[in-house]
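dumping the sequnces here before i forget
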Amino acid sequence: MASMMQPQIILLKEGTDTSQGKAQLLSNINAVTAVGDVVRTTLGPRGMDKLIHDDKGSVTISNDGATIMKLLDIVHPAAKILVDIAKSQDSEVGDGTTTVVLLAAEFLKEAKPFVEDGVHSQNLIRSYRTASTLAIEKVKELAVSIEGKSVEEKKGLLAKCAATTLSSKLIGGEKEFFATMVVDAVMAIGDDDRLSLIGIKKVPGGNMRDSFLVDGVAFKKTFSYAGFEQQPKKFLIPKILLLNIELELKSEKENAEIRLSDPSQYQSIVDAEWNIIYDKLDKCVESGAKVVLSRLAIGDLATQYFADRDIFCAGRVAEEDLNRVAAAAGGTVQTSVNNIIPEVLGTCEIFEEKQVGGERFNIFSGCPSGRTATIVLRGGADQFIEEAERSLHDAIMIVRRAVKNSTVVPGGGAIDMEVSKYLRQHSRTIAGKPQLFINSYAKALEVIPRQLCDNAGFDATDVLNKLRQKHAMQSGEGASYGVDINTGGIADSYANFVWEPAVVKINAINAATEAACLILSVDETVKNPKSQSAQGDAAAGAMGRGRGGGRGRGMRRR
Amino acid sequence: MALAFDEFGRPFIILREQDQKTRLRGIDAQKANIAAGKAVARILRSSLGPKGMDKMLQGPDGDVTISNDGATILEQMDVDNQIAKLMVELSRSQDYEIGDGTTGVVVMAGALLEQAERQLDRGIHPIRIAEGYETASRVAVEHLERIAQKFEFDVNNYEPLVQTCMTTLSSKIVNRCKRSLAEIAVKAVLAVADLERRDVNLDLIKVEGKVGGKLEDTELIYGILVDKDMSHPQMPKQIEDAHIAILTCPFEPPKPKTKHKVDIDTVEKFETLRKQEQQYFDEMVQKCKDVGATLVICQWGFDDEANHLLMHRNLPAVRWVGGVELELIAIATGGRIVPRFQELTPEKLGKAGMVREKSFGTTKERMLYIEHCANSKAVTIFIRGGNKMMIEETKRSIHDALCVARNLIRNNSIVYGGGAAEITCSLAVDAAADKYPGVEQYAIRAFAEALDSVPMALAENSGLQPIETLSAVKSQQIKENIPFYGIDCNDVGTNDMREQNVFETLIGKQQQILLATQVVKMILKIDDVISNSEY
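..and the predicted 3d for all of it:
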């Protein structure tokens, strides 16, 4: 207490929360483990969904790790890292977001006893890094390439990958149906990197089997004016004109004002305005287009004008839809109706307006460039379709990654067991502390098959031991054995087509290790008090509680 | 909600405003969700079937709705619970797709949830229950496909369509005149249907209602009915062989859209302006007369001056007709909508054999009938009834009937109603259950039991002994191996739904089973509910 006598040295602003040392490290690990526990149960085909209300009262039901992490609205600084790795996994490979969070949490959990025992965390970090490099090499070594197969064969294989991803989702019951759809969609856009070329449209109603794939573009009927119903609704090989201008009777210049001193000139002004719009419309008609789409409004006058001339038009088409039509039909979006040359007009085999559930859809199919695809999703409830869309997004990403990086590894925990075994063996060859650390890294990898069993309600220990035995076989024939989710036993994942692209696993191991190392390397958190003025009272109140509750046991220094 | 505690038992703050959130997880979450879903189903259960009761709902603004239609009831209830909302959406999506059977699908989902709860108590994993349900629903749908019957109809022989629509209407408040309403619905659909493409655009059928008269006065008009009258009381009330100019421009001097100002500094200039305005009116009316129009229908209004001029020139006119109606009139009369007087040509006029204004009873309200149109692809159903609620409910009932007729034109397969389809599916699913190894078998059996709940509710609502009736019908079905036996709700004296002419569409029934299964799976799959505690 002698220090109390000394004059107080104020280094940081008052109210700043600092916590440091080993205690801080442990508290961070605890927080991360707690977050890992939240998403734990969503893993695998028997994983459950989470229903989350957010502040605004909207609700999401999801199985997707990244979505859940994002919605949890985590404020704990260490735990936030998990959100980031989940997001990065999502943007990098699109799937395996739960896996990466789970792995990171497990790595830290294994590290905790060592930290408690006084191991320096840099030692741990170094060993974890080595282990992850080794693990990734092993994954690459085990991966099987699907390169060099015929297109048909490759499609089948890709569908297997997509099915594995979908099996854990709500639409798992129809995974084959959707897997083929996803593979077709991805194949349709070819090597093009623009994911926006695959459109997903959601139409409530119907059941999921009513979902269909359009080899072109589909979008909902836009707002229409009187006269629209008199337009023809079906064309074979129409010319398509894409515009980004308003076809409406309107003032040409916002701030212009016309002053008339002679009332008899009145009519000429009116005529001039009409002539402008008629001129525009005439040019559209002259171009020979049968379908006119515009991103901006097409007014009632234009609608009726086109109806008179048997032309279909749709105004206020969403930009992404218009771009997709442009890509699919091979046209270019015009910002003026002057000088329309035939090259800028697109075309497709069939254009049709069709009833889908309670909505009418404009469908362009059989497009020449074939570079787009649209999936029209049907489902019983809005939440259902939302979740289905997220699941399909994951599957699309997976297939895309698999197309580019065509190596696959057996899923169902098989690859994790094999890598774990390899690391264990490797650790035996090391003298010194790293042996222990690498061994615990290996143990942490086993969390995937263990969690799969736990979620399915199987005896995890029993299954894991069976798996260990298989993987320990010298011949290596057991290398692709994983959890059999249907029987509660083990099965050859590779033979059962439970496949995932190698890149998912590699990225997951990499990101999880990075996150774990990052958290291990932190020994002090300095948290500034929230600036009072900007956030207002509400935020300040919340912060007050946050500080008072005490994150970690950082001693308040005085 | 606390996710984790440190060694001293203090909670970590991991989430924003963590202490305001509540979390329900594991079996508790499932139980709570199931309870919510069941509660919704229980409300609708008593509305099922011909002897089902109606619900009276009072909206936040004091408006009252009385309905028997599942989708409408749930929509008006304004539920807050998320799981209950799923049930509402379930009903709505049945409404979008099929238009009928919105009550049945919720009752079915409720029954499935109830059965699932029992299985959960046995310790069966929720996802395995859901998977079992999915397998079972596939069995049921295939079975329906097998027992479904096709019937032929054409424009002249539409009796089967009427029978099916009658089944739908029999559960509604309007069942008193179900025969005539069903006929109206079928005729309306046939009038607008494209039998080649098997497509029906229901937008072409306009349903209009007016308080007064009796339900029996409800009629089908091969043409359009507009709730407007002639712009001038002295205009003729009846026009035969009308040539109609359909305008979207007002009878007003044109206004440029650009900002403009007319400087008037002398009396002469004012005079010219005034004269010019008059000239505009004159020209407009003259143009209409020139092309041979005998009636003007305008989307906008016109000045009193123009009105007077029209009257004077003997050109009847109707003003302020809505865009949708205008479009329908254009379609029906084969005319074109004209946006500008300069564009008027004789070819663009619509033709109708008879346009007449009709006034009702002692009120001064009048409506305009446009009949004997050149192209009768647009029709109007005009509903009369004692009060507003009655008319609204009739509209909804007619909508259901129209949807049924449309579905039959799309796919002319039917199954038998009165619970017969559910009972035979239940038998089929039960028989199939034994073929599946594993825990799913129990779920499949539970599905079969849940299917029984629909005929059960039918019997209950009709005042019959539910268990006795169901078991009797079931044994009859098995004994004679005929899937037509259902619950005799109307006490006709026979269980044979073929004789009673109680039909439902195959796609409607299949959709019900699939949708209910889908939503139940979604509910079962949730094991964690994180919410702000105010919810």
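The first helix of chain A runs from residue 2 to 5.
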